[in-house]
Structures are given as structure tokens and as C-alpha cells.
Amino acid sequence: MKVSVIFSFRNESGNLEELVRRTDRALKLANCASYELIFVNDDSSDNSENILLTLQKNYQIIIINMSRRFGVTPCVLAGLNQATGDVAIYMDTDLQDPPELIPELIIAYQQGFDVVHTTRTNREGETWLKLFLTNMAYRIINKFSNIELPVNTGDYKLLSRRVINEILKLQEYDPYMRGLSIWVGFKQYFINYNREARFAGNAKFSLMSKGPISEFLRGLTSYSAAPLYISLILGLFVTFISFIIIIWALICKYLGVSYPGSTGILVAVSFFSGVILTTNGIIGLYISKMYYEIKRRPQFIIKDIKHYQ
């Protein structure tokens, strides 16, 4: 059995040597017949590539350099496209997800599971606010989507060859990978582990940065049209309220009852404007997804691939 381990990274020079050493040791403990370490370089600006080129002399490392910065998901897909293993394991390069878990993932695969997830029971080095908002994001996605996304189950997982082939067939421009691994079905298994603090360097995505917010919106809109229905219900509710206000205003005028005009107008206009902008924004999210899908641009562009000898 051949194992492909995929790492998407950007500016992780402080982690690479330790990551390669620990991953190589874990794969040897798993008694893999052969393996490859696929590093997808998301246009790093530090010394990461040179470090990998040096490590390539002693380890079976493949370096995929992207033509520009594309993001984590396109890099993972680029790695899956190049992977030649019977299974693929993909994970982050910050060593928060321990490579020592790899033998357990492989054992689960050998027992007949096609997708092996890792679920974080504890997350060191992260604030309570981040943990709370992350849990809420998972629950919101589950509430409105047609998949059951496991809470605290991230991007560290094993996929069998037939699952890889099914995911690559989909050709979605902006897929939500955590959801796809659930959506494809097949036999799935979960392994609990303790997520460690980052080994070196700083986090690439802060709590309220573009990355986590985009990932949440991608997960929310990729597997459900529920937000569109919510905007419709909200619109009908506001229409009903406005109808009541109109009736009330006509009655007051007929009875000659004076009432403050400017405050009521400001409140009504502000409320209705907010609802209109919210519903338009929800519709816009879906339109933007269709817009990118219709253009059929490639998910990523590879600049070059450097193989080990």
C-alpha cells in the first residue's frame, strides 16, 4: 500500500524540518510499503521552498509550487490531483495536528473505512472565544445544511483512492472540503485526539479574518438553500408588519390622531432598509457562487513540480 501525505502551506519555514522528520517516522511505524510527502506551496515568500529542496535529498518529497496564492482548498485539490497513493492523508503544516496519529488512520482504513476523520477533543493555544465561535459555526452549518458536519472535525483526515476519485470528479470551483468528505458517503470513522499548540510561527488566519469567515459562508451555502428560504420568510414577515403599519397610519389619519412623524419614518425606513440589504446579501452569495461556477476557470494553476530523485 502506498500512502500520499499532502500538506498545503504558506511561509512555514520554522515548521518544515520537524514536520518532515515526525511524519517520516510515523509512516515507518505504520509499516507503509511506500509513501510520498506532497508539499503544495501557496506562493510562499520565505525560505520554505529551499528548506524542502534540502530535505528532498533525504526524504521522498514532492514540491508543487502554485503560480500565485490560491488558498488552502485549491492547494489540497492540487495535491490530490498529483497523489499516486492508495490513500491520501492531508493535514496542516503547523504541527497542531500530530503526525503520530497517521498509523491509527491507516489501521482504520485497513479495517474497511474509506474516510477517516480526526476529531479534536481539546485545542491548546486557542482562546475560549475562538472555540465558542467555531462550535457555533459548525452547529449553524449543520442546522441549515443537508449534511451532518461533525463538530471539531477539521482538515486532518484520510481518504481512500475511490473517495479521492469521486471528489476530483466533481470539479467544483469553490468546494467546501470538510463537507465534501462527508457528502461523498462511504464508510466513515472518527478518531479523537488532542490538538496541540502551533510548533513555530504565527497563525495565518485570525478569528475574524477573511479566511475563517469565507470558510463559514462556503460551508453554509454549499449544501443548503435554507438561507434563501429564510430571506423569503423574513421578507413576508416584514411585508406583514408594513401592512399593519399602513393600516395603523390610515386609522390615525382618519381619526385625526396626531403622532410623531419623523421618528416613525426613521425607524421604519431603517428597519426595512436593513431587511432588504440582508436578503439581497444572502441572494448575492448564491449568485456569486453561480457566477464563479459558470466562468469555469481552473481551480488552481501550478507553476512547477519538483520531484525527489
CATH C-level class of the largest domain:
Alpha Beta
Question: What's the architecture of the largest domain, going by CATH?
Answer: Alpha-Beta Complex
Q: Biggest sheet, strands in spatial order? A: 7-5-6-4-1-2-3-8
Shape: elongated
Which sequence of SSEs, written as H and E, runs from N to C?
Answer: EHEHEHEHEHEHHEHHHE
The fourth-level CATH homologous superfamily of the largest domain is Spore Coat Polysaccharide Biosynthesis Protein SpsA, Chain A
Let me know the largest β-sheet. 8 strands, mixed
Stretches with pLDDT under 50, minimum 5 residues: none
Give the averaged pLDDT, no decimals: 77
**Structural class designation:** alpha/beta
Number of domains: 2
From the alpha-carbon coordinates, what is the Rg to the nearest angstrom?
24 Å
* End-to-end gap: 20 Å
Describe this structure in words.
- The protein is α/β, with parallel strands linked by helices.
- It folds into 2 domains: 2-208 and 299-306, Spore Coat Polysaccharide Biosynthesis Protein SpsA, Chain A (Alpha-Beta Complex); 226-295.
- Helices cover 50% and strands 18% of the residues.
- The chain is built from 10 helices and 8 strands.
- It has helices spanning 16-29, 48-55, 72-82, 102-110, 128-144, 161-170, 177-183, 210-222, 226-255, 261-295, and strands at residues 2-9, 34-41, 61-66, 87-91, 115-123, 153-160, 188-195, 302-306.
- An 8-stranded mixed β-sheet has the order 7-5-6-4-1-2-3-8, sandwiched between helices.
- Helix 9 (226-255) runs antiparallel to helix 10 (261-295).
- It is elongated and about 90 Å long.
- The chain starts with a strand and ends with a strand.
